[in-house]
Amino acid sequence: MEKEPLLGLSLQQLQDVTSELGMPRFAAKQMMQWLYQKNISDISEMTNLSKAHRERLAERFVVGRSMPVTTQTSKDGTVKYLFPVLDGGFVETVYIPERERATLCVSSQVGCKMNCDFCQTGKQHFHGNLRTADILNQIYTVNALHAAGATDDSDCTKIEAPSAGALTNIVFMGQGEPLDNYESVKLSIDHLTAPYGWAWSPKRITVSTIGLKKNLNRFLKETECQLAVSLHFPLHELRMQYMPAERQFAIEDIVALLRQFDWNHQRRLSFEYTMFDGVNDSTLFAKELVRLLHDLPCRVNLIPFHQIEQTELTPSPMDRITAFRDYLTRHGIYSTIRTSRGQDIQAACGMLSTKIANTQSEE
Fold it and tell me: Are 316 and 276 in contact (CB under 8 A)?
């Protein structure tokens, strides 16, 4: 029988485990501390549980932690990790260091169903949702590696996991559509923000989505995290051409839903807009963005397209991106041009793919 991960379980679920295995009920709280504060990687490390109880646990469960199998470091300091997934396959996770911030770009699925024409992850198709343990493993393990000063393959096998300290922000912008795996993403957020976990402010966590309406509504009501909407095309027909999910989740409807919520300095709303040469980078599209987003407190992040295979789309020249930004700014839409990070190791926006690794794992 395949062992189940303890990481990701709630207190009630851990109490169910203790009851099932004949352990004292208070052992569930002890396990919570080991899992979510001390971030252990093996049941044998739960030293305030009796040896007999640890052995009984280990017969049925694992913690659910694993080290990355490969690590790549960019010339700009960005680090990309390849993590194994409990149910098979791999995902990539990207660590982005800045002066006063250390952001982790987390994956939520192996592949993606959305099949956006400009995204390398979508080209590898969908292979499965990550469990909560898989999501938390990316976060806890990378945090531990950087808190301990380990950033390459030679260091990865000898790191003991300390509590939160290295990471300052998390963005669910890696492989997959986070709201298509809502339950696992939501549970991972709950553990990170709970007093028994890292007690993070939800302002430190951003979830990116193309706009799955039902789960977007749940996310906005059930969390206080920041939101980034992958917009890219303000016109229905064009967005549908490059983002097939527009058929079900029209951007006009998504913006109408967003207008029902309160956006202030406590919770930021942003729109991601990747720029393609001759496709969506003219003044016409800047005008459409102003029309679509008028009076909505938000920012627009303009993203230079990073060339990938299997698409005819090409990057907009920087002077056109700058002119686009200036037009939005003049018309009341706060806009920034996102700095490209990790492009030399295929870690930049839209470039993540584990197609080769996942194919090899299935052989």
Answer: yes
